[in-house]
């Protein structure tokens, strides 16, 4: 199987798998009994903690001595993967977290379980992306697709609640 075909199948698997996990999670997640806005503000720490873990993996002291000077280009492949995963996760969080917070102002208590469920899926998806990327570039696709589906579902809920 070619890398391109594998990547396409991984994207499809990650997206459909993420959607299935989200749907099953929605049916199984306990009801929320607190103010959705306060809950979402607290839940926003989840993406922040993932970003912080990735940041810690990029500290130069964990790389080669030559990597101290960023203009030398002496970073290890491991560091470059961690840095790229961090950058992409910050970009994804810049989309997901504001949408999550906006959704928290619109969702009713009966459906507020989408808030912790969305954060749980997003966090696990980003960790899957990072771990997959550490193995091989092509293995980042399922986590990226799952992240995208989680963000898209959250956007869909926001649109639904805003109509």
Summarize the helices and strands and which ones pair or pack.
Blueprint: H1 3-28, H2 36-43, H3 45-57, H4 77-106, H5 114-135, H6 141-162
Helix pairs in contact: 1-5, 1-6, 2-4, 3-4, 4-5, 4-6, 5-6
Helix proportion range: over 70%
The Cα radius of gyration reads 18 Å
Mean pLDDT metric: 93
Uncertain spans, ≥5 residues at pLDDT below 50? none
Listing every helix as H and every strand as E from the N terminus to the C terminus, the arrangement reads HHHHHH
List descriptors.
single chain; globular; 163 residues; mainly alpha; 74% helix
Protein architecture, described:
By secondary structure, the chain is mainly alpha-helical. Helices cover 74% and strands 0% of the residues. The protein contains six helices and no strands. Helix 4 runs antiparallel to helix 5. It is globular and about 55 Å long. It starts with a helix and ends with a helix. The model has no long low-confidence stretch (mean pLDDT 93).
């Amino acid at each position: 199987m070619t890398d391109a075909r594998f990547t396409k199948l991984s994207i499809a698997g990650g997206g459909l798998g993420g959607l299935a996990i989200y749907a099953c999670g929605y049916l199984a997640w306990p009801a929320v009994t607190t103010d959705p806005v306060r809950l979402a503000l607290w839940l926003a720490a989840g993406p922040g903690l993932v970003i912080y873990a990735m940041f810690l993996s990029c500290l130069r002291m964990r790389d080669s001595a030559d990597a101290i000077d960023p203009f030398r280009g002496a970073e290890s492949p491991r560091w470059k993967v961690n840095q790229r995963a961090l950058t992409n996760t910050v970009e994804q969080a810049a989309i997901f977290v504001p949408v999550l917070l906006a959704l928290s102002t619109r969702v009713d208590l009966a459906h507020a379980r989408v808030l912790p469920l969305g954060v749980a899926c997003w966090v696990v998806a980003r960790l899957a992306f990072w771990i997959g990327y550490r193995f091989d570039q092509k293995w980042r696709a399922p986590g990226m697709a799952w992240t995208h589906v989680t963000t898209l579902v959250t956007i869909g809920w926001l649109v639904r609640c805003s109509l």
